[in-house]
Design a protein that fits this description.
The complex is a heterodimer of chains A (183) and B (354). Chain A is 50% helix and 8% strand. Chain A is mainly alpha-helical and 183 residues long. In chain A, strands 1-2 form a two-stranded antiparallel sheet. Chain A is elongated. Chain B has helices at residues 3-10, 13-16, 47-62, 82-90, 96-100, 136-151, 185-189, 193-202, 234-280, 286-301, 312-319, 322-329, 335-351, and strands spanning 25-34, 72-76, 106-110, 115-119, 125-132, 158-159, 163-164, 176-183, 205-209, 221-226. In chain B, the strands form two sheets. In chain B, strands 2-3-4-5-1-8-10-9 form an eight-stranded antiparallel beta sheet. The relative contact order of chain B is 0.14. Classes of the chains: A mainly alpha (183), B alpha+beta (354). The structure holds zinc ion (2 copies). Chain B: Its EC number is 2.7.14.1. Chain B: Residues 24-255 form the Phosphagen kinase C-terminal domain. Chain B: It is an enzyme of class 2 (transferase).
Chain lengths: 183, 354
């Protein structure tokens, strides 16, 4: 089968898209698929985030009781982002959010998707922005120090543990102050 | 224009300079995706917002204090000719998406082309650092410095629980893609790569060919990158990638040693045949050129060929892409004309070595 985009190369990747409950299959060569966006994860046999999301979305529908499953996929009252007015259905279709607030809006639906995309992970463990991260840095620091205390106690190094405990207390005071006065 | 002058203008630092382990690792790249908190993402933003993003990002970095980066130049996609954009893609400085689909797309490029900040790609900001050889941590360090500098003036979309918010949920968390480009002819010739790739996938890393389609990897050049961006720190992601790359380097080295032991004369023959093709061809397709270039580079690394510089593979893989050939020719070329141009450019470049 030839690629539907360039009509030149063999189509090796096949994407299922669900529009208004109707399935369409897109046949692309690898080159055209790549040009359509980095999100295509090529070596796993070619599945796209759109594809995955559409799959998850359908899965959720399949689990609904039969009566509800017959209801149209698009409901007037479906979830919609206040900031960019994207609906959850639109997000599933294009696989991209419209703005930062979409994450908050679709929070309820998002968790399983994010876990599946990131091999079960659901919490950020990396960089915190220096400026807007603000008190986050301090809280992260406190968490790390609390872990250190546990380790010190298990090694019976109580003096050092007490030092760290004082450090934690002063950091906690610092947090309180910044919460009171804003920053 | 003479080829030498064209080359001087065309070649980025990562293509010509030598880095650590550059006999096997061609380049290392870090890409950080960031977004403004208060503007809609590029997929749906207004052109007014798009312009504000360009202005704010350019303003935030134009007076940067990092001497190693040099001055930064703003390239607005709509102001560029299609061929100019194609060349930027072929040099890996912008993505095909920024070239073709982005609305109000721009790129802020450093003099030596090691730093390229894509603006209004899928995300508002994509900081990319591309270094020669195996230098992932170094690239991360520079990317972080630029990121911190931009963050002084820009309110990023960031969530305490899931980190940097990106347009596509595949990038959420660190927003970081770390990748390494490797030349692995030994593992391909000894049929070992297909055995190794599934094991690498198990570790959450993706292996793919950079040039060519489907399962073929033209020029035996592969890219290894992290698949997941959430749950691990940037440093841990880089460390995991580095571990796998170190493993691949040592397996590639043993494969080359084994080849030298068991079939030295056959290998030498293959190398010099390919050298013969490149030095004498009058018409050559990109596929054949890539495979010959890979052989010649292997021949240089293994000491069969002495007087040719190592970066010939890097350089010619890029310079013989359609965009570059047409830029050098000064206008559009049909595919058959490109094959003739490609042959003459390769011959000329090899002649410069003597
Ligand atoms: Zn195609
Ligand atoms: Zn939104």
């Amino acid at each position: 089968m030839k690629c539907q985009e360039c009509h030149e190369r063999e189509a090796t990747l096949h994407f299922t898209q669900v529009n208004n409950g109707e399935k369409t299959v897109l046949h692309l060569c690898e080159k055209c698929a790549q040009e359509k966006g980095e999100a295509f994860i090529v070596n796993t046999g070619g599945f796209s985030i759109n594809n995955l999301l559409a799959g998850l979305f359908n899965l959720q529908n399949n689990f609904q009781p039969a009566k509800q499953a017959q209801a149209p996929l698009y409901k007037e009252d479906s979830l919609r982002c206040d900031e960019c007015s994207m609906t959850y259905e639109q997000f599933v279709k294009i696989g991209r959010f419209g703005c930062a607030n979409c994450y908050e809006t679709f929070k309820g639906q998002l968790n399983p998707i994010i876990r599946r995309l990131h091999s079960g992970n659901w919490a950020h463990n990396g960089k915190i922005p220096r400026r807007i991260g603000g008190s986050l840095h301090v809280r992260k620091n406190i968490e790390n120090l609390k872990q250190t205390i546990q380790e010190l106690i298990s090694r019976e190094e109580f003096e050092k543990a007490a030092e760290i405990r004082d450090q934690i207390r002063s950091l906690e005071k610092q947090l309180e102050r910044s919460n009171e006065g804003g920053y | 224009m003479s080829l030498e002058r064209f080359l001087n203008q065309a070649v980025s630092s990562w293509m010509s300079a030598e880095g650590p382990n550059s006999d096997i690792v061609l380049s290392s790249r870090i890409r950080l995706a960031r977004n403004f908190k208060d503007y809609k993402f590029p997929t749906v933003f207004t052109s007014e917002e798009g312009q504000k993003v360009i202005d704010a990002v350019y303003q935030s970095v134009s007076g940067h204090p990092f001497s190693s980066i040099g001055t930064l130049e703003l390239l607005v996609m709509d102001d560029l000719q299609p061929l100019q954009k194609r060349v930027l893609v072929e040099k890996h400085l912008i993505s095909p998406y920024l070239e073709k689909n982005a609305v109000l797309g721009a790129c802020i490029l450093s003099e030596n082309e090691e730093v390229s900040i894509m603006v209004n790609e899928e995300d508002h900001i994509r900081i990319q650092c591309l270094f020669p050889g195996l230098q992932i941590s170094e690239a991360l360090k520079v990317a972080n410095e630029i990121d911190d500098h931009i963050e002084k003036q820009v309110d990023y979309a960031y969530d305490e629980q899931i980190g940097y918010l990106t347009s596509c949920p595949t990038n959420v968390g660190t927003g970081m893609r770390a990748s390494v480009m490797m030349h692995l002819p030994g593992l391909v010739l000894t049929h070992q790569l297909n055995r190794i790739i599934p094991a690498i996938n198990q570790l959450g890393l993706v292996v793919r060919g950079i040039y060519g389609e489907g399962s073929e990897a033209l020029g035996n050049i592969f890219q290894i990158s992290n698949q997941i961006t959430l749950g691990k720190s940037e440093e841990d992601i880089v460390e995991d990638l580095q571990g796998v790359v170190a493993q691949l380097i040592s397996e590639e080295r043993s494969a080359r040693e084994a080849l030298a032991k068991t079939s030295n004369i056959q290998l030498e023959d293959k190398v010099f045949r390919s050298y013969g093709v490149l030095s004498n061809c009058r018409v050559i397709e990109s596929k054949e050129a890539a495979s010959c270039l890979s052989d010649v580079r292997l021949g240089i690394d293994m000491g069969f060929i002495k007087n040719i510089s190592k970066n010939i593979l890097n350089e010619l893989m890029i310079l013989t892409q359609p965009g570059f050939l047409q830029q050098y020719a000064g206008g559009p070329l049909r595919p058959d004309e490109r094959d003739i141009r490609r042959a003459s450019l390769i011959r000329e470049r090899l002649n410069m070595e003597h």
